[in-house]
């Protein structure tokens, strides 16, 4: 019969706290940030599931070899931190020609006030007569590139320009909040799209 001493209880609680903390960090950084950076689609969904299973498993499988375990955990967290910085716009992925075409197409889809849906929803309905800024950018991405990536440079530049042009506005979700803001006019929307297109054009020329 095993006797639970004070030291063994403390040791086990310490390991429990370590693995719980590590699991939370791994789920937030490599798993969540990696999933957020991936495009939509069945193949990518499978990869997201593999990421969810594989990341914690990699940390657990190396637990008996401390040096390898430490390197594995550090590599996973470093990769997750890099993805977090990209997703939050702290580090910007360089825009390409497709991103310019995505924003130009977004502007076409929102060519008049009747085509602009002022909802804060990010749920997009196919063949809708009016579109939110987010859904217009999503549809434009699919038309231009064949898929949609939530954090592609075109959308990140839109989010960035919202902060630059309206620095006093604080939205929980940048594009959705901007879209539904009663103080924002259709002229403001066009101003945002023009500024974003100009930013990408300047980047492509540099």
Helicity, as a percent range: 55-70%
Give the overall average pLDDT.
91
Task: Tell me the structural class.
Answer: mainly alpha
Span between termini:
73 Å
SSE sequence, one letter per element:
HHHHHHHH
| Shape category | elongated
Strand content: under 5%
Uncertain runs with pLDDT below 50, 5 residues or more?
Answer: none
Specify the biggest β-sheet.
none
Distinct helical segment count? 8
**Count of discrete structural domains:** 2
By DSSP, the count of extended strands is 0
What is the alpha-carbon Rg in Å?
22 Å
List keywords for this structure.
8 helices, 0% strand, 68% helix, mainly alpha, 2 domains, single chain, elongated, 206 residues
Describe the structure.
With 206 residues, the protein is mainly α. It contains eight helices and no strands. Helix 1 packs parallel to helix 3, helix 4 (97-109) crosses helix 5 and helix 6 (153-165) crosses helix 8 (186-205). The longest helix is centred in the N-terminal third of the chain and has 32 residues, at 6-37. It is elongated. The mean pLDDT is 91.
Outline of the structure:
It is built from 8 helices and no strands. With 206 residues, the protein is an all-alpha fold. It folds into 2 domains: 82 residues, no CATH class; 109 residues, no CATH class.
Write the layout of secondary structure elements.
Elements: H1 6-37, H2 42-61, H3 66-87, H4 97-109, H5 133-145, H6 153-165, H7 174-180, H8 186-205
């Amino acid at each position: 019969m095993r006797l639970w001493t004070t030291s063994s209880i403390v040791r086990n609680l310490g390991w429990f706290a370590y693995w719980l903390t590590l699991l939370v960090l791994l789920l937030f950084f490599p798993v969540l940030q990696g999933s957020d950076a991936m495009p939509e689609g069945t193949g990518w969904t499978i990869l997201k599931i593999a990421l969810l299973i594989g990341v914690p498993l990699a940390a657990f499988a190396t637990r008996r070899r401390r040096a390898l375990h430490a390197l594995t955990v550090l590599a996973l967290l470093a990769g997750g931190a890099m993805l977090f910085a990209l997703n939050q716009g702290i580090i910007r992925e360089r825009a390409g020609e497709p991103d310019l075409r995505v924003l130009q197409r977004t502007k076409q889809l929102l060519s008049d006030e009747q085509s602009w849906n002022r909802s804060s929803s990010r749920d997009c309905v196919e063949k809708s007569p009016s579109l939110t800024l987010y859904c217009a950018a999503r549809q434009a991405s699919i038309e231009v590139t064949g898929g949609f990536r939530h954090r592609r440079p075109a959308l990140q530049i839109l989010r960035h320009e919202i902060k630059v042009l309206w620095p006093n506005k604080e939205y929980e979700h940048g594009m959705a909040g901007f879209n539904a803001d009663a103080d924002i006019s259709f002229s403001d929307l066009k101003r945002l799209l023009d500024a974003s297109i100009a930013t990408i054009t300047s980047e492509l020329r540099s």
